[in-house]
Write a structure and sequence with these properties.
- The chain is α+β, with helices and mostly antiparallel strands.
- It is built from 29 helices and 32 strands.
- Helix 4 runs antiparallel to helix 5, helix 5 packs across helix 6 and helix 11 packs across helix 15.
- It binds phenylalanine (PHE) and zinc ion (ZN).
- Zinc ion (ZN) binds next to helix 4.
C-alpha cells in the first residue's frame, strides 16, 4: 500500500538517512601507530590497482585494541595480508575495513582497485584531461586505500608508480624521486620517498603527459631546491609561458618566509601541477602542490591584475603551508583554522609586502565583510574552532579561513602594542619549534603565543569558542577639555550558542583635531567588558574619532558621528583603511536609510550631497595613488548592505545603490570622464602605477555608464577594442554586458571567438553574463546552461555560471522566485556528481530568514524541495538541514 492512502503509515515513513554528528569533545588518539607506509600504484585511467603496505604498532598513548579500523569510502578490498599471510577474517563496516590483530607490531598489506575516470567527485584518485591526479584533504585518501585517514596519524611514505610511458611520461609524488626505470614493455616506473612524516591528507600523486617550467632556489642555509611548475603538454600552445608569474611568486614566497618567519624549505624539489578539474583553489601536498589552473596560469592577455594577485597569493599560501600545516599539522579537523587561519594571515602579510599594505588590507576586509560576516549571522555560523560537524568539507569556510586569520592578526596587534615589535615572531618561533613534527591544536598555538610573545590570552580564547560578529557601539562625550568614549559590546546569538561573554577587542584609534586635520598619535584600546569608558584629556574642542584603524578587530561598529565628520575623515585620515571606512560608512548610512523607506526627497538630496563631496574629493585628490582611488570609489556591496538590516529586500537595496551610482555618474560626469581619459593614456605595464590606472579607469567607466548608459556604452566599446590587456578588456566587457546595446552583443561574440580555446577566459565570459546588471540576466543564465561550452563536470565552469548568478542580486532575487529555483535545481542535479561543490550553493538560499517575507517563503520552499531528495550526499544534507532550522 501507498503511504499516501494510509495515514497510519505516514509516521513510519523512513526518515532520510542522517549522517552522524562528529564532536570535538569525543577526540581520542588512534590505537595504532603507522610509522611507515609503502604504496605501489599500477596506473590506468579506468583501473588503478593500489598495493598498500603499512607497518603498524600499538600506540602507547592509546587504549589497547585487538582490531584495527582502517577508513574506506566506496572501496573493495581485493586482498588483505597480515605479516605475509593472506587473511579472510576481515569485515567491512560503514565502508571501513576492520582487521582483527594481536596488540603487537605487524605488517599489513592491502590491495584495492579504483576507477579514476568514473570519479566525478574529484576526491581521491581521478582523471582530468587524460592525466591522473589525487586530492586527499580532508578525507579523500580513504577513496584510494584503507587507512587511518585522520590527521594525527603521521607516517613516512614511499610511493612506487608503474604506468604506460606514452600516457604517463611524467610520474610525480611527494618528497624526492629516488629511483626510476623502464620495464621494456611500454611501461615505466618511478619511486618517490618523502622523509617527513605526514598525515594521509597530504599524500599526492600525479601522472600524465606534462611539461614544466623549471628554476631553482637556494635556501638560507645554502641548499639548492629544484623548482618545477607542470602543465598539460597538450596545452603547450600557451600554458607553459603563462606559468612565469607563478614561478616568480613561488621564489618570492620562499625568500619572504625565510626573512619574515625564519622558515626554510626542507626537500630537494618543490613541484606544482596545474589541473583544470579541481574543487578548490589549490592544495599543499608535501613537496607536490596541486593547483587549480586558475591560480597558476596568468599573462597579460588572458588574466586581469586581480587574477595575477590571486596567483601570487595562492602560490604563497600553499607554499607557506609547508610549515603551517605540514611540518606542524592538525590533531583533528576541528583544528582546521590552526593551519588555515594562520596560513591566510601569512599570505595576507606577504601580499601586503608585495603589493602595498593599504589596498590589500581593504580588499581583505571587503571579503571578510562580504562573505564571512553574513556567514556569521546566518544559519551556518560556527566558531573558528567548531564543536561538531557531519561533513568536514562543509567547514572550509570564510570563518575558518578569514576570520581565523583576523583572530591571529589581533594577537599580532596585541603583541606589538603590549610586548614589543619582536614579540609576535617570538611566539610563532616557539610554536614551530615546540610542535615541529606534531599534530597540534589551536590551544597549542595560543599557549605558544602566551609563552613566546608574553601575552595573557585567557579571555582571548573566547574568540576560538564563540561564533558571531561582535557588535561594538561607541558614543563620544566632550566636557571641559576631556573626551570620554563609552564603548559597549555584545556578541549576538548564533545557532546552538546563546548568552555569550564579552571578548577582548583591540581597537586602534586616533583623535583628530578638526581645525588642523592632525592627531597626536595612534593608540590601542582593548575593550574587554560589556560596558567601558575611556577618557582622554587635552581636547579643548571635541575631536573627531577615527576608530578600528587598519581594521584592527573583526567587529561591526556603530558610532555616533556626524556625516560631516565622516566627510572629514574620508578626506583627511592618515590611515588609509579608516579613510576608506569613512567613505563606506557614509554610503552605508544613506543606502540603509533609503532602502528602509526612511528618506524623504530633501533628506535624500542632503545625503547625496555629502557623499558626492567626499566622492569628488577622492576623484580629484592628486596626492592619492590611482589604486587607492579606485578602491575608495567603490560602493559597498549588496551583501554587506543587506547585513545592516535585520530583514531586507535585496531588490530595493540594489535599486537604491544603482540610483546612487547613476546620480554620482551624472553629477560628476566631467571629472569622471577626465579621470577615464587620463588613465587611458597610461601605457600597459605591471608596475603599481599602471595597475592603479587600470583600476581607476574601469571605476570611472562604471560610474559614467550608470549616469549615462548611451555614452557609457560608447566609452566601454572603445575601451574594449583599444584594450591590450585582460584587465581593461574585462572591465569594459563587464560594463557593456550590463547595458542594452548592440555593442554588447558584438563584444560578447568577439570575446568568445578570441578566447575559444582558453577555458579560464571562457569562465570569465560565463561569469560576466551571469553577474550582469542586464535586466534579462536570468534568461541569459538559462540559455548559457544549454551552451555547448557548459558542463556540470568542471567546478570552475559551474561556479563561473552559477556562483556569479547567485551573487547577482537583481537576478537571483527575482520576485517570482525563479532565481531560487534555478539554484535549487542546480544543487539537485550536481549533488550526485560532485557533492562538495553542490553543497556550496546552499549558502545563498540559506539567507532566507534575513530576506523580506514573500521572497523568504520562496527560498524556504526551494530548500525544502532539496531536503526532500532521499539520496542527498552528506555534504548537501548537512547544509540544507542546518539552513532550514528555525
Ligand atoms: N588546504 C587547501 C588550502 O587551503 C584547501 C583545500 C581543501 C583544497 C580541501 C582541496 C580540498 O590551501
Ligand atoms: Zn590553506
Amino acid at each position: 500500500m501507498d503511504i499516501a492512502t494510509n495515514p497510519e503509515m505516514a509516521d513510519a515513513a523512513p526518515t532520510p538517512h542522517q549522517p552522524p554528528v562528529i564532536r570535538r569533545e569525543d577526540y581520542t588518539p588512534f590505537a595504532w601507530l603507522v610509522p611507515e607506509t609503502q604504496l605501489a600504484f599500477a596506473l590506468g585511467l579506468d583501473t588503478t590497482r593500489i598495493t598498500a603496505t603499512l607497518s603498524i604498532a600499538p600506540n602507547p598513548a592509546a587504549d589497547i585494541s585487538s582490531t584495527i579500523r582502517l577508513n574506506g569510502d566506496g572501496l573493495k578490498a581485493v586482498s588483505v595480508t597480515v605479516d605475509g599471510t593472506p587473511v579472510s577474517d576481515w569485515t567491512i563496516d560503514g565502508g571501513d575495513l576492520l582487521v582483527p590483530l594481536s596488540a603487537a607490531p605487524h605488517t599489513l598489506e592491502i590491495v584495492t582497485e579504483v576507477n579514476p575516470s568514473a570519479n566525478t567527485q574529484l576526491m581521491g584518485l581521478y582523471g582530468s584531461g587524460g592525466m591522473l591526479c589525487t586530492q586527499c584533504e580532508a578525507e579523500g585518501f580513504r577513496r584510494i586505500t584503507f587507512f587511518p585517514d585522520r590527521p594525527d596519524v603521521l607516517s613516512i611514505y614511499t610511493v612506487t608508480m608503474t604506468g604506460a610511458k606514452d600516457a604517463f611520461p611524467v610520474l610525480l609524488s611527494n618528497g624526492n624521486k629516488v629511483d626510476a626505470g623502464d620495464n621494456g614493455d611500454g611501461t615505466h616506473w618511478a619511486q618517490w620517498h618523502d622523509p617527513w612524516p605526514k598525515p594521509s591528507y597530504l599524500f599526492a600523486l600525479v601522472a600524465g603527459d606534462l611539461v614544466a617550467n623549471t628554476d631553482s632556489f637556494t635556501t638560507m642555509s645554502g641548499r639548492v631546491v629544484e623548482l618545477a611548475i607542470y602543465v598539460r603538454a597538450q596545452n603547450d600552445g600557451g600554458d607553459l609561458r603563462r606559468t612565469d608569474h607563478a614561478m616568480r611568486s613561488l621564489i618570492k614566497s620562499m625568500e619572504w618566509d625565510e626573512q619574515t618567519f625564519g622558515r626554510e624549505y626542507d626537500l630537494d624539489v618543490f613541484n606544482i601541477v596545474a589541473v583544470s578539474d579541481f574543487n578548490m583553489g589549490a592544495m599543499e601536498n608535501k613537496g607536490l602542490n596541486v593547483f587549480n589552473t586558475k591560480y597558476v596560469l596568468a599573462d597579460a592577455d588572458t588574466a586581469t591584475d586581480s587574477d595575477f594577485d590571486g596567483v601570487e597569493g595562492v602560490i604563497a599560501h600553499e607554499y607557506f603551508h609547508n610549515w603551517s600545516g605540514n611540518r606542524v599539522t592538525c590533531r583533528d579537523w576541528f583544528q582546521l583554522s590552526l593551519k588555515e587561519g594562520f596560513t591566510v594571515l601569512r599570505d595576507q602579510m606577504f601580499s601586503q609586502d608585495m603589493q602595498g599594505e593599504a589596498v590589500k588590507r581593504i580588499e581583505d576586509v571587503r571579503i571578510l565583510r562580504g562573505v564571512q560576516f553574513p556567514e556569521d549571522s546566518g544559519p551556518l555560523a560556527h566558531p573558528i574552532r567548531p564543536d561538531s560537524f557531519r561533513e568536514i568539507s562543509n567547514f572550509y569556510t570564510a570563518t575558518i579561513y578569514n576570520k581565523g586569520a583576523e583572530v591571529i592578526r589581533m594577537m599580532q596587534t596585541l603583541a606589538r602594542f603590549e610586548c614589543g615589535a619582536e614579540a609576535f615572531r617570538s611566539g610563532t618561533d616557539l610554536y614551530f619549534d615546540r610542535h615541529d613534527g606534531e599534530a597540534a591544536t589551536c590551544e597549542d598555538f595560543i599557549a605558544a603565543m602566551e609563552d613566546g610573545a608574553g601575552l595573557d590570552l585567557t579571555q582571548f580564547r573566547l574568540w576560538y569558542a564563540q561564533a558571531g560578529t561582535p557588535q561594538i557601539s561607541i558614543a563620544a562625550e566632550h566636557s571641559g577639555d576631556a573626551v570620554t568614549l563609552k564603548i559597549s559590546q555584545t556578541v549576538p546569538d548564533t545557532p546552538g550558542q546563546k548568552d555569550k561573554l564579552p571578548m577582548p577587542v583591540p581597537l586602534k584609534i586616533a583623535l583628530f583635531d578638526r581645525a588642523s586635520g592632525t592627531h597626536n598619535g595612534e593608540q590601542l584600546l582593548v575593550c574587554d567588558a560589556a560596558q567601558q569608558s575611556f577618557t582622554f584629556a587635552g581636547f579643548a574642542d571635541k575631536p573627531v574619532l577615527s576608530v578600528n584603524r587598519g581594521f584592527s578587530a573583526p567587529v561591526t561598529i556603530t558610532r555616533d558621528i556626524a556625516d560631516e565628520d565622516l566627510v572629514f575623515l574620508a578626506a583627511k585620515d592618515d590611515d588609509s583603511f579608516a579613510r576608506y571606512e569613512a567613505m563606506q560608512d557614509l554610503v552605508v548610512r544613506h543606502l540603509t536609510a533609503a532602502s528602509s523607506g526612511r528618506l524623504n526627497d530633501a533628506d535624500r538630496e542632503t545625503a547625496r550631497r555629502a557623499i558626492g563631496n567626499a566622492f569628488a574629493a577622492i576623484v580629484a585628490d592628486t596626492q592619492l595613488d590611482d589604486s587607492m582611488r579606485g578602491e575608495l570609489m567603490m560602493l559597498p556591496g549588496i551583501t554587506y548592505l543587506a547585513e545592516q538590516q535585520p530583514v531586507s529586500d535585496p531588490s530595493v537595496i540594489h535599486s537604491e545603490r544603482e540610483a546612487l551610482k547613476a546620480w554620482l555618474g551624472r553629477q560628476y560626469e566631467a571629472q569622471l570622464t577626465a579621470l577615464h581619459e587620463r588613465t587611458a593614456q597610461m601605457p600597459f605595464g605591471l608596475e603599481q602605477a599602471a595597475r592603479g590606472a587600470r583600476k581607476a579607469k574601469t571605476q570611472a567607466l562604471v560610474f559614467c555608464a550608470a549616469g549615462n548608459p548611451q555614452r557609457g556604452a560608447d566609452m566601454a566599446a572603445a575601451q574594449y577594442h583599444a584594450a591590450d590587456n585582460m584587465t581593461d578588456r574585462q572591465g569594459a566587457l563587464m560594463v557593456l554586458t550590463g547595458l542594452n546595446s548592440a555593442a554588447r552583443t558584438n563584444a560578447l561574440i568577439d570575446f568568445h571567438r578570441r578566447y575559444a580555446d582558453n577555458a579560464l577566459v571562457i569562465d570569465k565570459w560565463f561569469a560576466l553574463q551571469a553577474s550582469s546588471l542586464h535586466p534579462r540576466a536570468i534568461d541569459h543564465v538559462k540559455a548559457l546552461a544549454d551552451h555547448q561550452d557548459f558542463t556540470l563536470r568542471n567546478p570552475n565552469r559551474v561556479r563561473s555560471l552559477y556562483m556569479a548568478f547567485a551573487a547577482n542580486p537583481h537576478a537571483f532575487h527575482a520576485a517570482d522566485g525563479e532565481g531560487y529555483q534555478i539554484i535549487a535545481d542546480l544543487i539537485i542535479a550536481l549533488d550526485p556528481i560532485n557533492p562538495q561543490t553542490a553543497a556550496r550553493f546552499v549558502t545563498p538560499l540559506g539567507r532566507w530568514k534575513r530576506i523580506e517575507p514573500a521572497r523568504s517563503a520562496l527560498m524556504r520552499e526551494q530548500l525544502a524541495k532539496i531536503a526532500a531528495v532521499q539520496t542527498l550526499s552528506r555534504d548537501t544534507f548537512e547544509q540544507v538541514s542546518r539552513s532550514l532550522e528555525r
